[in-house]
Specification:
heterodimer; A: about 300 residues; mainly alpha; MetI-like fold; 2 domains; about 75% helix; B: about 325 residues; alpha/beta; Rossmann fold; six-stranded mixed sheet; four-stranded antiparallel sheet; 10 helices; about 30% helix; about 25% strand; globular
């Protein structure tokens, strides 16, 4: 953005440009870094105020989250072990394994939610009767607090990975359906006329007009769904203490064992998954969105 | 079944209108009211249930059923509205008993106040809407439509937008037309878009986008081309240039055009014939044949005769509603 300004300086010398670039980078990222530094200061302050016995049990110093957990990574390869072996307690490799499991559940669940959601929306968009039959329930289900259903899934499908994936699908499918349906229906009337004029088949209309037109709205739906998918994967773990260890149930475990360092590490890892998902769909959104920056208005 | 009698021969012998009525019952009827002088031919096709003097009961026929053979196409209009009325579901009557025809090689413009049903006329011709009464006769298998907006697909390049026409219609008649139509390169050159094939619509100016839209419409070499105020949203300069290019296209390509516009000058410059519509419900208030031969130069706008034609049209447009 400010590249143009720098080339207009006339000098065009490499060192000068580098300096200006660095300068603008500081201007852009500086405030965010300052806020982060402030956050760390407050954290250190609170931990210091708590004093030693409480600090270990409730809120450790930020750096101990890393030092406590990280160095012992290599030791334990056992996925399901409850009792941490090393001196620093629960093994970080368990944390990584838990993260991998949560990530897998979220990814598989999200892919299923996208596939099913898009499928439902397409069917509803093509057959009005089906839309009239199902759409009201899709809306009502959205209002049901899905979390209350999670224990039920446990009873129905067991406490394993399957239930967790189902939780992810159920929790993240609605924004996919509603946004896809909205996108497919928001095609310009004039474009529909154009397709009618040339006797376009239903399939051509769907694939060459409705889908491309709906993509930006769909990606927004995917972005919302991806955030929900991570939440779903964690929540599934929180509810299902039995079964494989993922981040959700690790967090509860660490909490009950007064291991705040590992707990915070688990929270950070789950946030990372969320950030990666969100960024990914943000990137996808930019890719599909850029042709639509301006519509056909002359 | 189609019966066709006395096509032109009687008229040439007697020089008077002849009404030929053929067939009874379910047999398809073709009546030709043959013209005096330059009056357009009227062709009515329908199914006759009763013949009773002047009363003809005609049922609507899908216009694409109308067979246009070579012999007939010389005399049958490319596009014809017969007593067309259109009342929308909300009760708005936009068109009322409107009849007009566009012969092959004719460029007919329709001007009128906003909301008088000009666009509706084109939608009826293209089959995007059905008339509430009367009929619209046209061979829809080869019809081009230049919409009010360029209606380009923003995710397709110029080239891909033009090619869309060939991708959509896979019927056999269309496949033949693809063969007989122009190539994308040819139309791109015709509308002056060389070098812009790989641009996206949002990278083009309004005038350029309209050119793409025109290129797309003429790709299959349509026999009838409908224009719905295509240049209304453009600046005056671009509009004049596109007017000239449309004239050029009309001279080069053989099509019959029905052109809807607000601009009197544009209508007169382009057309062989201009109809003025009354305010809603639209009917024809007046018709002028524009006497200038083609090819026309843009300087024609400053011709006194040209101004006279414009003045006449303008006075019709201004006339208060009775």
């Amino acid at each position: 953005m400010s590249d143009v300004a720098t080339t207009n300086d006339g000098t065009g010398h490499e060192p000068g440009r580098q300096a200006v670039k660095a300068n603008t980078a500081i201007k852009r990222l500086g405030p965010a870094l300052a806020v982060f530094a402030g956050f760390l200061v407050v954290w250190y302050g609170l931990a210091a105020l708590l004093g030693e016995p409480k600090r270990a049990a409730i809120l450790p110093y930020p750096h101990t989250v890393l030092t406590d957990v990280w160095p012992t990574t290599v030791d334990c390869g056992e996925f399901l072990c409850l009792t941490g072996g090393g001196p620093s307690g629960v093994q970080p490799s368990q944390l990584l394994a838990a993260t991998a499991l949560t990530l897998a559940v979220a990814v598989v669940g999200l892919i299923l939610a996208l596939a099913l959601g898009i499928g439902c929306a397409v069917v509803m968009s093509q057959y009005v009767t089906i839309e009239r039959g199902f759409y009201p329930y899709a809306i009502i289900l959205q209002a049901v607090p899905i979390l209350t259903l999670v224990p039920l899934f446990g009873l129905l499908f067991g406490f394993g990975v399957l239930s967790r994936i189902i939780v992810v699908v159920i929790i993240s499918i609605f924004p996919v359906i509603t946004n896809t349906l909205f996108g497919l229906g928001s095609v310009d009337e004039a474009h529909h006329d154009l397709f009618s004029l040339y006797n376009a088949s239903k399939w051509d209309r769907l694939t060459k007009l409705q889908f491309p037109a709906a993509l930006p709205a769909m990606v927004v739906g995917f972005q919302i769904a991806s955030g929900l998918a991570v939440t779903g994967a964690i929540v599934g773990g929180l509810f299902f203490q039995r079964g494989p260890r993922d981040l959700g149930n690790r967090i509860l475990l660490y909490s009950s064992r007064l291991r705040p360092g590992e707990m915070v590490a688990a929270v950070i890892l789950s946030s990372l998954i969320g950030v990666v998902f969100f960024q990914f769909f943000g990137w996808v959104g930019n890719r599909v969105g850029h042709h639509r920056l301006e519509q056909n208005k002359p | 079944m189609t019966c066709s009698l006395g096509n032109g021969s009687l008229a040439s012998q007697f020089g008077v209108p002849v009404l030929v009525i053929a067939a009874i019952g379910d047999v398809r009827l073709v009546t030709h009211a043959l013209p005096l002088e330059n009056e357009p031919l009227i062709r009515i096709s329908g199914s006759l249930n009763r013949i009773n003097g002047e009363e003809r009961t005609l049922t609507h026929h899908q216009s694409s059923n109308v067979d246009v053979n070579d012999h007939a196409s010389a005399t049958i209009p490319a596009l014809q509205f017969v007593d067309v009325g259109k009342t929308f579901a909300d009760g708005t009557e936009t068109l009322s008993e409107l009849s007009l025809s566009v012969d092959h090689g004719q460029f007919v413009s329709v001007i009128g106040p906003s909301g008088c049903g000009k666009s509706t006329l084109l939608r009826l011709a293209a089959g995007l809407d059905q008339p509430s009464s009367g009929r619209c006769v046209v061979d829809r298998s080869n019809l081009g439509y230049v919409f009010q907006d360029p209606t380009l697909l923003p995710w397709r390049t110029v080239e891909q937008n033009i090619e869309l026409v060939n991708e959509l219609d896979r019927s056999t008649s269309r496949t033949e037309q693809v063969a007989s139509g122009l190539s994308v390169d040819e139309v791109v050159e015709l509308v002056g878009l060389d070098g812009f094939e790989n641009y996206y619509p949002h990278q083009l100016s309004g005038g350029m986008r309209m050119r793409v839209s025109i290129a797309r419409a003429i790709l299959p070499r349509p026999s009838v081309l409908l224009f719905d105020e295509p240049f209304a949203a453009l600046d005056e300069l671009t509009r004049e240039r596109l007017n000239e290019e449309t004239l050029q296209l009309f001279s080069d390509q053989q099509f019959a055009a029905l052109f809807v516009t607000h601009s009197i000058v544009e209508a007169v410059l382009l057309s062989t014939e201009v109809h003025v519509l009354s305010p809603r419900p639209g009917r024809i208030k007046g018709t002028i044949s524009v006497p200038f031969p083609y090819p026309r130069e843009p300087e024609l706008r400053f011709d006194p005769e040209f101004t006279n034609v414009c003045r006449q049209l303008s006075s019709w447009l201004r006339e208060p509603v009775q």
